[in-house]
Amino acid sequence: MKLEYIVGFAVGSLVFLFIRGVNTLPALLMGALLYLLMTQSGGLRDFGRRKAGAVVGDRPDVTFHDVGGQAVAKRELVEALEFLKDLEHAKALGIRPLKGILLSGPPGTGKTLLAKAAANYTDSVFLSASGSEFIEVYAGLGAQRVRELFQRARKLAREKKKSGAIIFIDEIEVLAGKRGSQVGHLEYDQTLNQLLVEMDGLSLDDDVRILVIGATNRPDLLDPAIQRPGRFDRMVRVDLPDKEGRLEILKMHLRNKPLDKSVDLEALAKETFGLSGAHLESLCNEAAILALRKRAKKVGDEELREALDKVIMGEKLDRRPSETELRRVAVHEAGHAIVAEKVRPGSVAQVTVSPRGNALGYVRHSPQDDRYIYPRETLEEEIDILLAGALAEDVVLGSRSTGASNDFQRALDMAKRIVSYGMSPLGVVDRDTAGPDLLAKATREILKAAEERTLPLIRRYENVLRRIADDLMVKETISGDQLRELLGSASKVAWRWRKLPSNRGKVRSRVEA
Ligand code: ATP
């Protein structure tokens, strides 16, 4: 019987009893409570039976051309999908059907896009779900949802007259984590078992061929059973894009936005090392929003740079530090910038003292090349740059502040990495047996040596540091080129000063190239 009839009958009976003088108030209250419970949990019919997985569409519009970079992932995925495209050939060769592909990589790198493109490429329907949708406190519900998801995929494919369906499960580590490792492990284990049962039952002769694509940022958490041959036996890495990839993604997301001639996308791609496709998409969108706010007709370099700051550091804050605090921040950032420019010439993209996110100021670096391995010298340079802020405060203002705590933490982590990767004078050490004192001493020595290297550099450039800090207080932001100009002119002054006959033979120079 329909829910509406039951409700109508109940209300009618209550009215009748009320007319006959029966006290119906308790029954009314009970009814209201029941109604509230049902509406909170999605209605009587769905009570305890919420479905997992959203149907995104019969065949997504996204193609592999919409996925920037990721050439290797795309190639591997296309190779894996060939069997769905050429089924007869696959059958003739006796190929076991490919049932699952795992896409693993950092967030926002395009795993969902790739899965949608795979559905488009194989002309399949596409269903997407997230691992957490299957996790319930009631035993058996998760397993039931897995069953339903596969049934819905088949039904949808038949309705749409397609022979293939792709089920995309994001955060698959939640559903397919190592068995026995979860708190309410029985329910988790049943859900995973059901997924394995469904996948084991897939065959090339099914009228709808289902392919499950799982995505994860944590492949280390997955139960080994799901990677057994015949289940998710293809693992495709979807990494952060390299410079070429970033350029491609930027072009893709700027395609529909009018760009000013001043924009140098190559330089922007270089400066965005470490950003994912999702970050880059957000950057392009933010830049267009900024242009809109300025009533500009085109998106310019300025908007893109500001959007980059926003994506990396967070929203600009209205909070204005006091004059004294601002001076300290300016000196601190100028210290980082000068040392960065000296140890890695041309690497500073921008120095600013406008507060954003958790930072009162920051230096944006633009790496010369993407880096994947770090020799000891690079890590030491990094430590020098990190310590330079506090050392600059020391030299110019006579004391340090709490503003350097994050720098110190990062410098310490970097020093620990030098020790644990066997790059310190201790050589290769076992952290478990080397003893904390020995490791702490090695770490301290690395940091001390960095201070001894960096302090003279700060002293040598003290005058130019003060000038940069003054400039920052007025302009808020100076570009890498302006910084290099200031440093360059400082070098020329020093050179001229040394050339004067009266100064020959004196201390090498206060300001040196
Ligand atoms: P998560 O692991 O957080 O689920 P994901 O890897 O699945 O993330 P997507 O959802 O595919 O990432 O990407 C989010 C958005 O970022 C996309 O809609 C797209 O706009 C942009 N994007 C990410 N990667 C790329 C890429 N390689 N090319 C073009 N756009 C991309």
Q: DSSP helix count?
A: 18
| Rg of Cα set | 31 Å
Number of domains: 4
Q: What is the general shape?
A: globular
Estimate the mean pLDDT confidence: 83
Estimate what percentage of residues fall within beta strands: 5-15%
Number of strands: 9
Percent helix, as a range, is: 40-55%
The N- and C-terminal alpha carbons lie at a distance of 89 Å
CATH topology call of the largest domain: Rossmann fold
Order of SSEs: HHEHHEHEHEHHEEHHHHHEEHHHHEH
What's the quaternary structure here?
A: single chain
Low-confidence stretches: 39-50, 493-513
CATH superfamily of the largest domain: P-loop containing nucleotide triphosphate hydrolases
> Strand order of the main beta sheet, please?
1-3-4-5-2-6
The biggest sheet, with number of strands, parallel, antiparallel or mixed sense and barrel status, is:
6 strands, mixed
- Class of the largest domain, according to the CATH hierarchy? Alpha Beta
| Secondary-structure arrangement, i.e. CATH architecture of the largest domain | 3-Layer(aba) Sandwich
Ligands, deduplicated: adenosine-5'-triphosphate
